[in-house]
Amino acid sequence: MTELAKKRPEFRNINAFKDLTTYRMTPAAWVSILHRASGLIMFLLLPFIIWMFDTSVSSEISFAKFSAAFNIGIGFVPGWFIKLVALALIWSYLHHFCAGLRHLWMDVSHSAVNKQFGKTSALSVFAVSIALALVLGAKLFGLY
Amino acid sequence: MSVNYGSKRVVVGAHYGLRDWLSQRVTAVLMALFTLALLAQVIFSKGPIGYDKWAGIFSAQWMKVLTFTVIISLAWHAWVGVREVLMDYIKPVGLRLALQVFTIVWLVGCAGWGIQVLWRL
Predict the structure, then answer these.
(1) DSSP label at residue A74
(2) A124-144 pLDDT, tens per residue?
(3) pLDDT surpasses 80 at B52
(4) pLDDT tens digits for A44-82?
(5) Distance CA A51, CA A58 (A)
(6) Has residue B83 been placed in a domain?
(7) Quick check: A20 contacting B, CB < 8 Å?
(8) Residue A55: strand, helix, or coil
(9) How far is it, in rounded angstroms, from Cα B87 to Cα A53?
(10) Where in chain A are the domains?
(11) In angstroms, rounded to a whole number, what is the distance separating the alpha carbons of residues A138 and A136?
(12) GO cellular component terms (chain A) (predicted)?
């Protein structure tokens, strides 16, 4: 083995605080990691999603309970917190949806797989998902 | 699709992740179409949406069948995705197995609950 080959450095462990903070993330990288994060948020909040489905469709009484959870609160949880969680889910869904369409587009179109499209499509994902999340969030919190 | 059982099992090489990749895409398209179908019904309903209109959307038989399919799709899609995330970030085998078992229990449980709600409508 030559001297050079022996000294070849190996970087196996990425330190979350020392290394990750030095990464310069491109828009496509942000879309990618947030695709995972939003998926995980929806996965973990799945019981809450089904609870909303259950209470909103089961009966008139449960529907009233559903509305009250958002307007007044439920148990020790205030209504604004339920709304905030719902907004997190709305954003997660929108981001995951838009980033997913971007994925599908790149799967079927070879001409879409290049640096330029990667950047512009990533920015479009943010533009659409954040704008829609703001509009729906404003509606949710009764701003209009 | 490559053979993944018996003596002719393909253990390495290309196409190994094709099934997961393809099923994640197919389930994603199904859920996206469901989103549009639900959204259309909400947008084109007249007047404010109360309990009757909201529950009415899901009580139509075709919508029940579609929603059922989407619940199954969602569990499958999430399983592929979460498994991928666990394979990337969780290296100790024991912990990864435990989390994968938790993921399956979580998804099957939630899917069961969702289907129960749907079927008593």
Answers:
(1) E
(2) 999 999 999 999 999 999 998
(3) yes
(4) 999 999 999 999 999 999 999 999 999 999 999 999 999
(5) 10
(6) yes
(7) no
(8) helix
(9) 31
(10) 27-140
(11) 5
(12) membrane
Q: How many CB atoms lie within 10 A of CB B41?
A: 17
What does pLDDT average to over chain B?
Answer: 91
Residues A66, A56: contact at Cβ < 8 Å?
yes
Scan residues 35-94 of B and list those with Cβ closer than 8 Å to A: 35, 50-51, 54-55, 58, 78, 81-82, 85
Amino acid (1-letter code) at residue A39: G
Search chain B and give the residue with CA nearest A50. Answer: B114
Fold of domain A27-140: 3 helical TM bundles of succinate and fumarate reductases (1.20.1300)
> Chain B residue with minimal CA distance to A36?
B85
Within a domain: residue B111? yes
Model pLDDT for residues B14-49, shown as the tens digit of each residue: 666 788 899 999 999 999 999 999 999 999 988 888
Nearest CA in chain B to A97: B32
- A5-28 per-position pLDDT tens digit: 677 777 677 788 888 888 899 999
Q: Which residues of A touch B114 (CB under 8 A)?
A: 50, 53
What's the pLDDT score for residue A71? Answer: 94
CA–CA min distance B117, chain A (Å):
6
> A53 CB near a chain B CB, below 8 Å?
yes
Whether residue B2 lies inside any domain: the answer is: no
Query: What is the CATH number for B41?
Result: 1.20.1300.10
pTM to 2 decimal places: 0.89
**Number of domain units in chain B:** 1
CA of B82: which chain A residue's CA is closest?
Answer: A40
Q: Are the Cβ atoms of B110 and A56 closer than 8 angstroms?
A: no
Interface test with A, best of B33, B117, B120 (most A CBs within 10 A): B117
Q: Where are the alpha helices (DSSP H) in B1-121?
A: 18-43, 51-59, 61-89, 93-119
Query: Does a structural domain hold residue B18?
Result: no
Domain extent at residue B89: 24-119
Tokens (6 digits) for A132: 């829609």
Of B25, B32, B55, the CB nearest to A97: B32
Q: ipTM surpassing 0.90, yes or no?
A: no
